[in-house]
Backbone:
DNA sequence: ATCGAAGTTCGAAGATCCTCGTAGTACGGT
DNA sequence: ACCGTACTACGAGGATCTTCGAACTTCGAT
């Protein structure tokens, strides 16, 4: 139940972040977290299988976009807003402001 | 010498833009254009073959990130800053500000 | 009119990615 | 102790992506 591995701020790479955001499912996860942070991604009603969801959340976590904490049998995800804003000011807001 | 097909502003999709930016070569192209706009990508000294370069520039163009105009035997590329800033304010600046 | 330079098109090879099902682990509650 | 829930690990299939070389087109210059 140890904490999961996350990149430090100075290990985050822009290419990995962009790649993580460049998927429809992961983008919906990020949007949802921006709306209601600190939530289990399994309860978002995305239309994918549990194993697919694990893959996407891991991609976001390893890219440094989200932080994941175990709580009971669930995993609570939250946006790494401070880190992303510090590294790429405006990026996250620009993505979230996207009409499409 | 027909102009090449470009998406209108309202046809640009955030997922396509992010995917276009999520490649090291294309990111270097975008950075270079941010530094010196209206330039032929062939003269950037990226270490890829001409056909690979064509592929990347087309990806950027079709995503709506760059505008490409034929001039002589060359293709002049320029960042679609206004469109991107209007759609996703802060995104491009955030990406360009990226230390890594 | 011929030549070279700049780019494109068309495969093709190899890598990466997204998705899933199956099997398994970890935790909380009865 | 048992069960159900939430999630993970490990493939595998199929799609997409990146890269390239070879052959071709287009344009400007000689």
Residues:
């Amino acid at each position: 139940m140890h904490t999961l591995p996350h990149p430090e701020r100075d290990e985050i790479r822009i290419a990995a972040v962009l790649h993580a955001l460049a998927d429809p499912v992961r983008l919906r996860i990020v949007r949802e977290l921006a709306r209601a942070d600190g939530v289990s991604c399994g309860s978002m009603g995305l239309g994918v299988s549990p194993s697919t969801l694990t893959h996407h959340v891991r991609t976001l976590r390893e890219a440094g976009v989200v932080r994941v904490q175990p709580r009971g049998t669930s995993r609570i995800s939250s946006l790494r807003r401070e880190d992303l804003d510090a590294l790429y000011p405006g990026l996250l807001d620009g993505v979230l402001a996207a009409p499409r």
Q: What stands out?
A: Helices of chain B lie at 14-21, 24-35, 50-63, 81-87, 91-96. The radius of gyration of chain B is 13 Å. Chain B has one domain: 9-96.
